[in-house]
Specification:
Strands 5, 6, 7, 13, 14, 15, 16, 17 and 18 form a nine-stranded mixed β-sheet that branches. Strands 1, 2, 9, 10, 11, 12, 19 and 20 form an eight-stranded mixed β-sheet that branches. Helices cover about 25% and strands about 30% of the residues. It contains 18 helices and 39 strands. The longest helix has 18 residues. The chain is an alpha+beta fold. The N and C termini lie far apart (about 75 Å). The radius of gyration is 27 Å and the shape is globular. Bound molecules: flavin-adenine dinucleotide. The site of flavin-adenine dinucleotide has 41 residues, from α1, α6, β13, β18 and α9.
Length: about 800
């Protein structure tokens, strides 16, 4: 065994084997995999091993397509062929129109990744799967490439190819400890001696947190018991001239595939349970949990009704094994927050289908710093400290119970709420606030018209349309107040703050004390990494503000770029302060009534920051706006937030001040052409493609990403972000929807909403540069069906920005 290597991958399931193989594919052959027992002796060996193409985001569809292509290639390798039933096809069933509309949207999204799904009616479902009943069935989504694979052969094939490329694989070699050194490299302690490695990867499956402890981190991953059974042979299958397709059923929470001449049927029961919460027996190897089919009787009945043939055959075997879940159902693949040279590929609940793709994207990140897709949906840094053991367990249970039920737009499920609140949360709730969840924070979405008001979950415009319109009108005509909690706020101080930040952003730093500016950070390839509001406080401190979910991501990116000896201190104020946003033409009058001082446009112009009191509460006030109206962001310490709120409400009485929420903000920001990080601002595009040219100073002496961006600028943009006006009123488009020209898909929607002030159905989309000219007529998928859409100017409302500068 080598004692020095570039990367040690810990764990020999599909996650570890795929990572190792892809590292060699990316050109790194000095890499090792250490497995405590035999390869695949964790969850992988007993997996139902279905491989599907369906995903809720383009990144998931893309990585699954990679798995499918890779597995096909491995299966056809004459030297080591493996069993892969490729292309049996699969059905996701639906018994409501709303589910079918969702499927149509996801089919549109997949089309943009070159993947063709079909949405079909119940009779066609039954034609494609002769064993199902059409009782209580409306239709389904057909995924032509679904199939299943032999998990042990798959891992062996990956390990075999990795070894052939120079990698080492060591079985029966448990990692027992990890020590990190000052240069960020690691000593990996094993039962067979120590290994020095530049980088470590946690791929330890359900033992993820045993390895987490070794590096002093807790990963928000919990295991659930999960059962399937195998039936005796079924005559109709034996006699069929083709293999049965897969089934995934959100109506009765089961899945099913053919296994030999019988069926494999798995369940997601409501009476589910976590596993290993109080530690895992070290001898749980190649092992299963005790069968407990009594627990699944609720879903068993539905499965039997859908597939009557099941009632006529015996059960051959029951498998019950641990399966890992995270807080939001997607795995954690990428850099470990707060650590250097440490990555993970964990929380895989569909690891056989997805593992090929996850290992591919992780290896790219390790070798190149970034993957070919924006990987935020699987980024381990997307949870910021609230992913504790208990919350993770609650969300894992909820997610398991809803395995095949996708989230509708604005659907935020109940488990583990509230986890992050401010002193205002109960006050706003008493005022009738409905909350959406943003990175764990309960954030006001709108004020309900009645305490028992509930909105329908749908891809169409729903009952909130007029509520949001009313809130927008009050912000446009008088004054509105809202709370933006959890906004990431880093405070930078020290002699070198300005030169450091100047190097980190691609544009110009705000120069004067008291000045605020918007800035963009690039990765080393010149692609968009982060967006920040930079505020020069009068005493030399600088505030760096960014989206709530960016807290760990941006903190790590900044701290990793500090040079030795640079005098910069960075501390997070995110959990200490909350923003009250005061917006509308009467906002200045409200502020002047609540706070001493001259708030005139001359004394406190657009893009200024100053410290003040709001009533008796100390606050840092910025004149910035995400709504396009005259507005102030008022940053208040949480322990005095209520005092500031009371002062503003009192001052607002004379100015018709009303509460508004994030849904109104979303409508207004899209009219203004303002972007959301990780919706519209993605690492797949550079600032020129994103239309942020005015925030780039290519002539600057140095900044992170400069060389990459220069090279890209010479090539010219492949795609451009445009604003589209969609010619319909019944539904918005949604993130991921395809944009087409003729019969070709030429773009993808990043975010969309109704613009209430301009009365237009708007969307942002990246489209091929050739179709990005103003006035181009394209088609956008709405509920999966093409609707005419025209490229319009980025800003539809007050393009001269007269309202934010109003006197
Ligand atoms: C019943 C069931 C059915 C499933 N069906 C499907 C399906 O149809 N399709 C699908 O895509 N997915 C399915 N899954 C999920 C899928 O099997 C898992 O997502 C996948 O196997 C996880 O792989 P892994 O590599 O992350 O973890 P594991 O397979 O658990 O591998 C982790 C490895 O790390 C090793 N390890 C742990 N600690 C250490 C250490 N300290 N040192 C060295 N090695 C260590 C372990 O021994 C283990 O071999 C199913 C899961 C279950 C339980």
């Amino acid at each position: 065994m080598k004692t020095q290597t570039r990367v040690v991958v810990i764990g020999g399931g599909i996650a570890g084997c795929s990572t190792l193989y892809h590292l060699t594919r990316e050109g790194w052959d000095d890499v090792m995999l250490l497995e405590r027992d035999e390869l695949t002796s964790g969850t992988t060996w007993h997996s139902a091993a279905q491989v599907t193409n369906f995903g809720l985001t383009q990144t998931m569809v893309g990585l699954k397509s990679h798995s499918i292509a890779l597995y096909k290639d491995l299966a056809e390798d004459p030297e080591y062929p493996i069993n892969y039933h490729h292309g049996d096809g699969g059905l996701r069933l639906a018994n409501t129109e709303a589910q079918l509309e969702g499927y149509r949207h996801f089919a549109s999204m997949a089309r943009g990744m070159g993947v063709e799904f079909e949405v079909i009616d119940a009779a066609e479902c039954a034609r494609r799967h002769p064993l199902i009943s059409t009782e209580n069935l409306l239709g389904g989504l057909w995924d032509p490439l679904d199939g299943d694979i032999d998990p042990a052969q798959l891992c062996q094939a990956l390990a075999r190819r990795a070894r052939a490329a120079g990698a080492e694989v060591h079985r029966n070699t448990p990692v027992t400890g990890l020590t990190q050194h000052a240069d960020h490299s690691w000593t990996v302690h094993t039962s067979k001696g120590d290994i020095r490695a530049e980088i470590v990867v946690n791929a330890a499956g359900y033992r993820v947190n045993e390895v987490g402890v070794m590096m002093g981190v807790h990963h928000p991953v919990a295991s659930m018991e999960h059962q399937y059974f195998l039936t005796e042979p079924i005559p109709a299958i034996r006699e069929a001239d083709r293999r049965m397709p897969l089934i995934r059923c959100p109506i009765s929470d089961f899945y099913c595939r053919q296994e030999k001449d019988g069926l494999l049927v798995g369940f997601y029961e409501q009476d589910c349970r976590t596993w290993g919460m109080d530690g895992i027996d070290p001898n749980f190897v190649n092992a299963l949990c005790p069968d407990d089919l009594d627990r699944v009787t609720d879903v068993l009945e539905g499965a039997f009704a859908r597939m009557p043939a099941l009632m006529e055959v015996g059960i051959r075997t029951v498998i019950n094994g641990p399966i890992t879940y995270t807080i939001d159902g997607a795995p954690l693949v990428g850099p470990i927050p707060g650590k250097r040279n440490a990555y993970c590929i964990i929380g895989l609940r569909a690891g056989l289908g997805e593992g090929g793709g996850h290992g591919w994207l992780l290896a790219q990140q390790i070798v190149h710093g970034e993957a070919c897709y924006d990987t935020w949906v699987i980024d381990p840094r997307r949870f910021t400290g609230h992913g504790n053991v208990e919350l993770t367990a609650l969300k894992a249970i909820e997610d398991y119970q809803n395995e095949f039920r996708f989230h509708f737009p604005h659907e935020h499920r109940a488990a583990g709420r509230p986890i992050k609140t401010t002193p205002l949360t109960p006050i706003l709730a008493a005022e009738g606030a409905h909350f959406d969840v943003v990175n764990g924070w309960e954030r006001i979405a709108y004020i309900k018209p009645a305490p028992d008001f509930e909105e329908a979950h749908t891809f169409r415009f729903n009952e909130t349309f007029n509520i949001v319109a009313g809130e927008v009108t009050s912000v446009q005509t008088a004054a509105g107040l809202t709370e933006v909690n959890g906004f990431n706020r880093l405070e930078l101080s020290g002699r070198d703050v300005h030169s450091f930040l100047d190097r980190m952003i691609c544009g110009r730093m705000p120069q004067r004390p008291g000045q605020v500016g918007l800035a963009y950070l690039l990765n080393h390839q010149g692609m968009l990494k982060s967006e920040a509001t930079i505020a020069n406080l009068p005493d030399g401190r600088v505030w760096y503000g960014s989206a709530a979910a960016s807290e760990c991501h941006d903190f790590d990116w900044l701290t990793q770029h500090l040079r030795p000896g640079e005098d910069v201190q960075i501390r997070s104020l995110t959990n200490d302060l909350t923003i009250l946003v005061l917006a509308g033409p009467r906002a200045r009058a409200v502020l002047s009534a609540a706070s001493r001082g001259d708030w005139s446009a001359e004394a406190f112009p657009w893009l200024s920051v100053r410290e003040a009191f709001i009533g008796i509460a100390p606050a840092t006030v910025m004149s910035v706006s995400f709504s396009g109206e005259l507005a102030y962001e008022i940053h208040v310490p949480n322990n005095q937030l209520y005092a500031a709120y009371l002062a503003l409400r009192e001052a607002g009485k004379a100015h018709d001040l009303r509460l508004f929420g994030s849904r109104a903000v979303d409508s207004m920001r899209i009219e203004k052409g303002y972007l959301h990080w990780k919706a519209d601002i993605l690492t797949e595009f550079d600032p020129f493609e994103t239309g942020l040219d005015r925030f780039v100073q290519l002539a600057k002496a140095d900044f992170v990403g400069r060389e990459g961006l220069r090279a890209r600028a010479e090539q010219g943009p492949a795609r451009r972000l445009v604003t589209l006006e969609i010619d319909c009123t019944h539904a918005p488009s949604h993130s991921g929807a395809s944009v087409s020209h003729g019969s070709s898909v030429i773009g993808t929607v990043t975010s969309a909403d109704w613009g209430h002030r301009v009365g237009k159905n708007l969307a942002f989309a990246f489209v091929d540069a050739a179709h990005s000219e103003l006035g181009s007529v394209l088609a956008v998928d709405v509920l999966g069906l093409p609707v005419a859409a025209t490229v319009v100017p980025r800003c539809s409302y007050d393009p001269e920005a007269t309202r934010v500068r109003a006197r």
